[in-house]
Amino acid sequence: MEYAIQTKKLVKRYGRGFTALDGISLNIKRGEVVGYLGPNGAGKTTTIKILTKLIKPTAGRAYINGVDVTRPSKEVLSKVGSLIEVPGIYEYLTPIEMLTYFGRVYRIDKKVLDRRIKKTLSLVKLSDCEHKKIGSFSTGMQRRLAIAKAILHRPEILLLDEPVLGLDPRGIKDVREMIQHFQSEGMTVFLSSHLLGEVAEVCNSVIFIDKGKVVESADMKDITARLETKAISVEFSRPLSKEEVARIQAVKSVSNAEVSDNTLLISFEGGLHTSYQILRDLTGMDLEIVSYNPERMGFEDYYLSLVGNERGVK
Amino acid sequence: MTSLSSDLYYISLSLRFEFTKHLKRRRLLIVGALAIIVPLLFLIRAADTADQFASNSMMFMSFLIIISAAMFAGDAISGDFEKKTGLLLFPTPQRRVSIFAGKYLAALAATLLVVSIYYTIVTVEIIGLFGVGDIPAELAKSYLIAVLYSCSAVSIIYFFSSVFKKTTMSTLIGFFFLLMILPILSMIMMQLNVEPWFIVTYPAGLITDVLGATSIGASHRGAINTFQPTFGVGMIAVIVVYAIVFFLAGTWIANRKNME
After folding, report:
1. How confident is the model at residue B213 (pLDDT cuts 50, 70, 90)?
2. Lowest mean per-residue pLDDT among A60-74, A140-154, A276-290, B117-131
3. In chain A, how many domains are there?
4. A159 and A283, same domain (yes or no)
5. Residues of B with CB under 8 A from a CB of A
6. What number is the ipTM of this complex?
7. Nearest to A63 by CA among A234, A149, A188
8. Are residues A139 and A198 in the same domain?
9. At a CB cut-off of 8 Å and minimum separation 6, what does B35 contact?
């Protein structure tokens, strides 16, 4: 099977022995929106820089549409759009001038180009500023323009490195909607980020990396299933006696019960039906239940359980 | 599209884009203004003969070439790495060599435009003051050397732009290399009674020497043993070799640079 993006045991070492990538292997299918998650310094940007031929790997291979990007030809990048880190801007040009140049780089037909630029600027909500000098743009506007450059040629593959960096909440929402739009057009999106919420909302699957290694790779559906209720927080009108706690612990499927004042945290094995059965058993015990809340493990908790909680997670 | 025609397409695209940048950044206008104003200053105390007027006017030419080359080529490569515009420019289907060649040609085109404006104005002044018949034939030789020296100066500063990460560093070092370091080396050579024919600023002195004067920035007089370059294939070859070698070396280094 030919993947949109594939890497095989990718290694990148910088001077003084710092290993940014330590044998990363990725297989990304066409049309997928894949989140590439990891703390700062995990190797996300390095991977994207290798895929876009900005740097060379120390070892291993990287492929775009089956073409080895470590080979000299740059033709493969004609089908790739990229936004990497915070690129510099041509402050003395207007968006139209800048995008016209890049449109020609991607050999977009002159007749099509003008319309395409207008449409793209409209998509990133910069239509009102098309003739203003880029130097006068806010950080968010510059970011949008960089996204416009990345999507101008309607690439098959879009590599986005921290696309919402520096954007306000409205800008973040707009970028999310844009990514969903690209997905509906069949684009493969590889989204590197350390912002979990952003990834959870738009991606089909997620790859977690840390210290240059893949820690976990899974579909969002699978991860969501793993985050399903495995604990219930039950609040009572009064503190429970030891005997009452022991009775609860004896309920079928309950693996543990921890008491704290009026609240009991019940861990159990099973799904939603088990949770319902436990509730039924508890109500049968006449224990004056005030509230019954299935605890949901957050995406953040899941992430921290994979990479540890010492570094840059938001 | 073949690889060659594809490269030519991207070189011409890069050239036009970079030239537009020179225009938009007003650098071309500033240096262009110098090329217009300075020759007019020589009218204040006009020389008695056309030869002398041309000779006096061209004393500024080497300096103008160096300042133009520094302005247009100083950030040709280092700028994309320092300002991170390379993150937009490099992950595209164009080869880096094409991008850099276009940048070099744009810097050269801007420099040649400035040089040509200067020569045109001086020629018009000579016509106005002395008549068409008095235009010195040596002015064409001077122009030829100025064009070739422009190629070398742009190549040298382009080379420094590929070596250094900071644009101010590459611009200043390139500027002082041509304006001071090479002329000082020439003088040292002459002190040692060695003709510095292999130092590019020495043959570049022909810009004025063919007209009978010595220019700012290409001075090789004042030493105990005075040598003077003679117009010919040998001196032209030295300038051309500098242009080619520094361009190739700069492109090679730039092509190997990682955008880290």
Report:
1. low
2. A276-290
3. 2
4. no
5. 10, 13, 17, 20-21, 24-25, 80, 83-88, 90-95, 258-260
6. 0.86
7. A188
8. yes
9. B64, B114, B115, B117, B118, B121
